[in-house]
Structure formats: structure tokens, C-alpha cells
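ZP: hey, is the magnesium ion complex queued? I don't see it on the tracker
AM: it wasn't, my bad. submitting now with these inputs:
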Amino acid sequence: MNEHIHRLQEELRRARYVADQALTTVLYLAGRLGRPVLMEGPAGVGKTELAKVMAQIRGVDFIRLQCYEGLDAAHALYDWDYPKQLLTARTVIEGHEQRKISTDIYTEEYLIERPLLKALRSQPAPVLLIDEVDRADEEFEALLLEFLAEFQITIPEIGSFRAQQPPMVILTSNRTRDLSDALRRRCLYVWLDYPSLEREVEIIRLRVPGLAEELIRQITRAVRQMRQWSLLKPPGMAESIDWAQAIEKLDVRELDEESIFLTLGCVLKTQEDMEFVYQKGLALLWKS
Ligand SMILES: Nc1ncnc2c1ncn2[C@@H]1O[C@H](COP(=O)(O)OP(=O)(O)O)[C@@H](O)[C@H]1O
Ligand SMILES: [Mg+2]
């Protein structure tokens, strides 16, 4: 393994994030090539966490843009501080000042930075997380494409801002809709799936260090079993870690029907899924 990649993998682990060689390689290349990374995968497999951890190990700011339906330029790029502009305009009018309002109230002083502009202007270059981009509309994707192509934002009243050094950009998607080919082509792509059994054991070990090895394995096996059933909300890593923490806090010695029954709310998040698992029988989980 390339020594830089090996080192990055070790740094991630020290920040309590377990990444395999393929994932680490993409992260390394993203940094070297200055390309955004698009990460897709089911909920709770560590997409958001990875961006936070990358900022932590690079020792730079972490800037997050959470996407949602209707997200627009005024919330992603920049906006004007309307109340402040209004106040200035009123003062000018009341005081009969001679200033030309139209130019004076469109300056830096009245500018509100939103995450994308902030990411361009912060130095050293931060890590920018554009989280759950599939939730935003297609028009927003077009805007994003422009941003990712140039790392530049033009504000007609002020001028253009370009990043001295482009931020490291991580986009995530839970695949609730398909993203455009243009956006995909711009990025290095990672499909982040549920981890293998061994990797999941390793993650829980890192995150819940006090828990006995045998319990970690029982929890991992039970969670993996549940992922094979067609649940509405299959448990992700967040759930297996929560569950492991609960089992530790309750001083459970061994996973059995009763302890699973009492803590199932850590793993399953809908009544329908609980019903489904009861029907299957809890024994399938602790004997799995
Ligand atoms: N590879 C991993 N190493 C360490 N912790 C992980 C890993 N993957 C997931 N986690 C844990 O699972 C939790 C959920 O991950 P998150 O980033 O919110 O998932 P996603 O964004 O993919 O839905 C995180 O808080 C983190 O503690
Ligand atoms: Mg997330």
C-alpha cells in the first residue's frame, strides 16, 4: 500500500473512523487532485461522519450545507442582510443624507455568507460537506455544478470571489433520487455500503471500548441479520453503536431474548419494523 494512503488510514483510525483501503485511496486522491467526492450509500454507514473526521485530521474548519427541498442560492451561497439595509436606507432618508443608497447598501457590510461562499473565503481551505444532495431540487444541482467547476462565486454588486485554495468537498446522497450525470462526472465516486462483519466489529470496538468482545460479535450478527429482512428502516452503524452502548450501560452479560426486547428501540425506529421482528422471533437474533 502507498505509504501516504497507509498514513491517512492510520489518522482516520486515530480519529475513531474505520476506512478500508479503497475508501482511503479515494480520499487521498481527492486531496491531491482537488476533486470533490460523491459518496452514496444507505443511511447510517458513516458518510457524514467521514467529512467531519477529514476536517478534524486536516486541522481545518468544517463547513456543512444540509440540503433540503427548496434549497436556493440565498441559503447556499449568500444573502443580503435586509433589516440592516432597511435601517440604513431609513437613516439616509430621514437624515436627508446625500449618499446613493442603491450602491451603499450592497457592500460587504450587508453581505451574509452562506456555506458555499464561506467555504471559498475560509483559509486554510476547509472541508465542505454538502450533505444529502439528493434532497435538493435539480435546479440546485445546476448551481452546484457551476460552483464545483470554478470554485468561484460572482456577486453582481460586489464582484467575484475565488478560492485561493479550493476546499475539500464531500457530497453525500442517500439515493432518494438520481443525480445528474454532469454532477457525477465532476466527482470521484464512492459507494459506501454496510461494513463487513469484521469491519463492523472493529468499529464498535473503537466506539464502545468497554464492551466484551463476545457481546460485540453478538450485536453485530444480530444487526446484520436484521439488515437482511426487508425493514422500513434497516439499522445502520449509528444504530449498532447505540445498541452496543445501551448493552454496555445496562451491564448486560449476554445477549438474550429479554435484553434484546428491552433495548430494541436502539436498533429499530418504527412500530412496523418492531412488529416484523417480533413476528420473526427474537430468538433468531440472539441465536444468530
Ligand atoms: N467506518 C466507521 N468508523 C467509525 N464510526 C462509524 C463508521 N461508519 C459509521 N460510523 C458511526 O455511525 C454513525 C452514523 O454515521 P453517519 O455519518 O451519520 O451516517 P450517514 O451519513 O451515512 O447516514 C456515526 O456517528 C459514526 O459514529
Ligand atoms: Mg448523513
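AM: back. The chain has three domains: 3-73+121-191, 78-113, 197-286.
ZP: great, adding it to the tracker
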